[in-house]
Specification:
- The chain is mainly α.
- It folds into 4 domains: about 100 residues, no CATH class; about 80 residues, no CATH class; about 55 residues; about 40 residues, no CATH class.
- About 65% of the residues lie in helices and about 0% in strands.
- The longest helix is centred in the N-terminal third of the chain and has 48 residues.
- About 10% of the residues are buried.
Length: about 300
């Protein structure tokens, strides 16, 4: 854009304002407000600087003219009009630049999130059920902070997406290894491995230790059973030997059938359930049992320890 010149001497003696004005208006009309590429943004920002410089030229010219004569009010009015048009065009262009930059950033972030989401959906249900931060937009938004061009933002988001995919692949491989380890457990130990879903998500070393501990526990409990059974049998034999026989001098029918009958309610039994789970899961199972059976007459105390 050419330099604006106005010379006054009681009247306008020399000015190229009309030519300069037409040049500025024509330039404003050629401004591209449909911004997509990096070149579009660079050109738009260059136009903003040029328009801003034009505004300053108009203000400076007006200040100079005011000192020279009062007869040039018409020129001043024209300058004000053109200055206003230039300002409006600049502000509209700045708003458009800001809006489109924001939209493009959102599109790039969305593309990164969708790429990871699509990859995650191809993995096992166990992995998909895992609590993770792989789909959080904030990670991708942080990744493009400070990036000024579309290509640099796309490159940053693509790099982060690939990094997350690698993390997902590594975790999926760990789950597959855990599945193989669980599948190799002898079926006779199935009673202590009912929580397969949570076992799959363990670290491999932790799973190995858990398997060993549960099998040891199972075997230890199994060894106790014969001893407990013998003790119970001996107790029953002792009770039979010590049972009081009716005396010869007492009529056999001294007690009525009703008195001799022991109602089931007069006998006490304990049902014990051992749960291999975290405290929250154990509490959930306890609540379900308590809700279903605590209102029965034959049920005494239900407790979790």
């Amino acid at each position: 854009m050419s330099e604006l010149i106005i010379k006054l001497k009681g009247e306008v003696t020399d000015t190229n304002f009309d030519e300069w004005k037409n040049d500025l208006i024509a330039k404003l009309g050629r401004i591209n407000t449909e911004l997509s590429t990096d070149d579009d943004f660079a050109n738009a920002e260059s136009d903003v600087r040029a328009i801003k410089a034009g505004e300053k030229s108009l203000k400076d010219a007006k200040a100079t003219a005011l000192e020279q004569a009062a007869e040039i009010q018409k020129l001043f009015d024209a300058i004000d009009t053109v200055s206003s048009e230039a300002r409006d065009a600049r502000l509209a262009l700045e708003r458009q630049i800001k809006k489109r930059k924001s939209e493009i950033k959102d599109d790039i972030v969305d593309a990164g999130v969708e790429a990871v989401k699509g990859y995650l959906q191809k993995q096992s249900e166990a992995l998909q059920s895992l609590r993770h931060s792989w789909l959080e937009r904030s990670a991708f938004e942080d990744e493009i902070k400070g990036k000024r061009t579309t290509s640099s933002m796309q490159k940053a988001v693509l790099g982060l997406a690939e990094k997350i995919k690698t993390e997902i692949s590594d975790r999926e491989a760990s789950i597959n290894d855990n599945q193989k380890a669980i599948d190799n457990i002898d079926e006779k130990y199935s009673a202590v491995f009912q929580d397969e879903q949570s076992l799959l998500l363990m670290e491999s070393d932790a799973l190995k230790s858990t398997i060993e501990e549960r099998i040891e526990y199972f075997e230890a409990e199994k060894k106790k059973q014969p001893v407990e059974a013998v003790a119970e049998e001996q107790s029953e034999e002792s009770n039979e030997e010590n049972a009081t026989e009716p005396e010869d001098n007492e009529p056999e029918d001294t007690k009525s059938e009703e008195e001799a009958y022991i109602h089931p309610a007069d006998q006490s039994h304990v049902i014990s359930i051992e749960v291999f789970a975290e405290i929250d899961d154990a509490q959930t199972l306890f609540d379900e049992i308590d809700d279903q059976y605590s209102n029965r007459e034959i049920v005494g105390e239900i407790k979790l320890s």
